[in-house]
Amino acid sequence: MLIARGVSEGVIKPSGELLRAVTACTTCGYCMYKCALQNVDVIIALRAELARLGCLDPEHRKAADMILSHGNPYSKSLQKLLELPKGGETVFFAGCSYAQYLPEKLIKIGEVLSRIGGVAWLGPDEPCCGNLLLASGQIDAFMDYGERVVGKFREAGVKRIVTACPGCHETLSREYPKFFDFDVEVEHLTQLLARSMENGKLTPRSLNAHVTFHDPCHLARFSRIINEPRLIIENIPGVVMVEMKHNKLNTLCCGGGGGAPIVHPRLTARIAERRLGEAIDAGAEIIVTSCPLCEHMLGRSAKRKRSQVRVLDIVDVF
Length: 318
Known about the structure:
The protein is an alpha/beta fold. It has three domains: 55 residues; 104 residues, no CATH class; 113 residues, Rossmann fold (3-Layer(aba) Sandwich), CATH 3.40.50. The protein has 15 helices and eight strands. It has a four-stranded parallel beta sheet. α15 links the parallel β7 and β8. α11 crosses α13 and α14 crosses α15. The model has no long low-confidence stretch (mean pLDDT 94).
């Protein structure tokens, strides 16, 4: 906070060293949970001030250019990944990370949503939510881009959004109402899955394993969605539910958030390895999570460490 104040008052000058330190934060919110200060907001404000002064990481600038020109930071198309009706009051919002890292999971999500019924989507030209613009401090770009996204929802007559990405959920439910005229209900996929399981539309398949749930930071600490994933896992036939040392609001980050992995790949890989170690210590054979970045980071870590622990998306249990 003192550094942020120093930069804003011109006492501390922007530098590559300062930028490296500021971009290493994954914006996981663990510090806010522990000390109740709005540290993530301070980090974002500091990044915004550095960006205003022309101090912006080249990788974040490149990702922003892709978002503004292609609608997502990876230029990945959703074509052929989702088989859902186009247009409706309730839409599934895929976001950008599944298409980039786990396209096969989008196909699975589409299959499950078709079984539930009543959920459409915007179509293959769906934009991403623009979270990376905000997280990297590019506020003006986020505001310009977000207006376009809001316009797409408004044009389609959307009243309710279901998303499987905690980052999208937090951005659309908490950040969009701060910046835009946006009054749309936003639900995470785990909430819809739990409700559909309870009303008999979905039945989880048997797993016969010790399973732990990795709480994505944005899902637990920012959106406070904790119980629904556990309700699903506890009703899977053959599962013994085990909790990691850090769980629920006290969860540890996978290393995938805040735009940190594209700037600090080695650091964020070590963060993922630490979290994988907690799952192993808990006796888990399977890690279930409900975030594309968490699944990607933990899955890659397990593969790199040659661990026998499997990493599944919560949609995989249906």
